[in-house]
Write a structure and sequence with these properties.
The protein folds into two domains: 257 residues, TIM Barrel (Alpha-Beta Barrel); 42 residues, no CATH class. The model has no long low-confidence stretch (mean pLDDT 97). The longest helix is centred in the C-terminal third of the chain and has 23 residues. The chain is built from 13 helices and 14 strands. The strands form four sheets. An eight-stranded parallel sheet has the order 10-9-8-7-6-3-14-11. Strands 1-2 form a two-stranded antiparallel ribbon. It is of the alpha/beta class and 329 residues long.
Length: 329
């Protein structure tokens, strides 16, 4: 384990602290809800979903947070502006956790941001994300919003290496007139920037994605995190292995994979979430929220190991809540 030479920023978002040196604060874990083809969603465009089951999943993540000491965020992924407003409203009513405004549709994210401004939720929201695909209109909306926290996505389509991601952060890489970090802070009013290196597939840049988080924390001291589960989920070899060693079956009205291939796929998906923690990162977007019962004890164990090294080898103080205090018995 290691200590960064540069002072590491620690943000507080809706009571959750994120950032710092490895081992100082517990890794913040964010489960995704309402994602594409999520079994609880009945109509993705209209934002119709099984509220009882959605609440159960949210409360389950909160319970696992209580068990391990890992703070939480909700990654709200919506398909439309209408759905985004309904889903934010619901999540804010059943949980006090900070949440990510996320979508592949810019209009949906903008609608969510405006809704948060209108109803007083901006201090709990994290915009996901400011990236090379953002239009000038979207950037203006971010600038005019009350939201102060946003994820900066380090995807540089011209160069997927660590150097390419740093070029994007420092110069804009030919897309922006200034570096992504300066743009967010100076032009858009983002006082709590978080960095996501952008997870690329295994064999097509995943290694650089993981390594770049280390470099960003070293150079800028801002919190870093990954949605690393996307790498094994998109891994062609793993999907082929599942297909060869498992089969689809109907269970409780849902189609699921069953067999050793399915177990291996799930193991790689869930297990990948330890990688950012071992690399000194601060938050993990671990994927489907229903994976919380497996993800939290696993990540909590790694947090304990990192904290133990931070204390004994570097004299750092570990702050509560943390698995080091919750899971040491």
């Amino acid at each position: 384990m290691y200590v960064f030479d540069r002072k590491q920023e620690v943000y507080e978002i809706a009571g959750v602290k994120i950032g710092g040196q490895p081992g100082e604060y517990a890794t913040v874990l964010a489960g995704t809800i309402f994602y594409a083809k999520h079994y609880i969603v009945e109509d993705a465009d209209k934002g119709i979903f099984d509220k009882k089951e959605a609440e159960r999943l949210i409360k389950m993540q909160e319970e696992m947070s209580d068990v391990t000491g890992n703070p939480i965020m909700l990654q709200i992924f919506s398909e439309s502006p209408e759905a985004m407003e309904k889903e934010i409203e619901f999540c804010a009513e059943v949980s006090d956790a900070p949440f990510l405004i996320d979508s592949t549709v810019a209009e949906a994210k903008i609608a969510g941001m405006k809704y948060c401004d209108e109803v007083g939720l901006s201090d709990r929201a994290i915009y996901n994300s400011i990236n090379v695909s953002c239009s000038q209109e979207e950037l203006e909306e971010i600038k005019n919003s009350k939201i102060s926290a946003a994820i900066l996505l380090g995807f540089n389509p011209k160069d997927t290496t660590v150097a390419g991601k740093i070029d994007l952060m420092e110069t804009g890489a030919g897309t922006f007139e200034k570096g992504l970090l300066a743009l967010a802070r100076e032009d858009l009013g983002i006082t709590k920037p978080l960095f996501d290196p952008a997870t690329l597939p295994i064999g097509a840049g995943c290694g650089s994605s993981c390594l770049s988080g280390f470099v960003v924390k070293s150079k800028y001291g801002i919190p870093v995190g990954l949605g690393i589960h996307n790498a094994p989920s998109a891994w062609v070899w793993l999907k082929r292995y599942r297909k060869e060693h498992a089969k689809k079956v109907k269970k409780n009205g849902k189609t699921v994979w069953e067999g050793i291939g399915a177990e291996v796929f799930h193991l790689c998906d869930v297990g990948s979430n330890i990688i950012p923690i071992l690399l000194g990162q601060d938050f993990v977007m671990y994927g489907p929220i229903e994976n919380a019962p497996l993800v939290f004890p696993l990540c909590g164990m790694i947090d304990m190991i990192v904290a133990e090294a931070a204390q004994s080898e570097h004299g750092l103080q570990t702050n509560e809540p943390h698995p080091y205090f919750k899971m040491s018995e």
